[in-house]
Design goal:
The protein is mainly alpha-helical. It is 79% helix and 3% strand. The chain has one domain (24-231).
Length: 233
């Protein structure tokens, strides 16, 4: 009888050792994820959100899903703001004649900007809701919060600041187009040369042009801030 039960007892005695060897990997997964966030995102200039390799996903365990909150937002943001560069180039005006001939284009671009702003707001809200559901130990949370602010909150807020500035510039251009249309009998435009017969109309038109120049300056400053955020320059 002893010889029959001894192997079973030895197996039972060895089982806790096997379980200990296959125990909780969370601490090392958390450490790997924390180091990745710190070195690959927080410490790098600009907004950088690298795609994870299969090996990195395995090493992060369940925390890979926490990183997906950041990557999903950035993918959505990139798709939403992709037309922005083209809109800004297309909306650039160099003369009063430009404003008049591209009036309909400017109105159309304003609609695109409004759609862009709405999409960014929705994506940010979705990311914030997903982040609120994450359960993280304090040491990881401290680093994750920095990475999230840098790659989600800051770029979203910056783009949402730039869009109204661009919209305001288009508004100023459209006001000029409407004014010239309403006073076209007093305004003669030939290429880059503008002649105004009525001094009062000339004064009002100059004020509108000055407002446009001020809006363009504000937009340029907003663009500079956006580049500083995105590129870290």
């Amino acid at each position: 009888m002893k010889s029959l039960f001894r192997p079973f007892l030895l197996l039972v005695a060895a089982l806790p050792l096997v379980l200990a060897a296959c125990g909780d990997k969370e601490p090392e997964q958390r450490a790997a994820f924390t180091q990745y966030l710190q070195t690959r995102i927080v410490d790098k200039p600009g907004v950088r959100v690298p795609a994870l390799t299969d090996e990195e996903k395995r090493s992060f365990g369940d925390y890979a899903a926490h990183y997906a909150v950041i990557t999903d937002f950035n993918s959505g943001m990139d798709a939403s703001v992709k037309p922005l560069s083209g809109i800004m180039q297309k909306g650039s005006v160099r003369s009063l004649n430009d404003i008049l001939t591209r009036r309909d284009d400017l109105k159309g671009m304003q609609g695109s900007l409004n759609d862009m702003g709405a999409a960014l707001k929705e994506q940010k809200s979705k990311a914030d809701a997903a982040r609120a559901q994450l359960k993280q130990p304090d040491d990881l949370k401290a680093v994750y919060d920095k990475a999230y602010d840098k790659t989600v909150s800051l770029p979203a807020d910056t783009f949402r600041d730039v869009l109204p500035q661009l919209n305001a510039t288009f508004d100023s251009s459209l006001k000029i187009a409407d004014y010239v249309e309403a006073h076209k009998a007093q305004i003669d435009i030939s290429g880059s040369i503008v002649k105004v017969q009525d001094p009062a109309v000339q004064t009002e038109l100059n004020q509108l042009l000055q407002d446009l120049n001020a809006q363009a300056k504000n937009l340029q400053q907003a663009q500079t801030r956006m580049q500083a955020v995105m590129l870290g320059r």
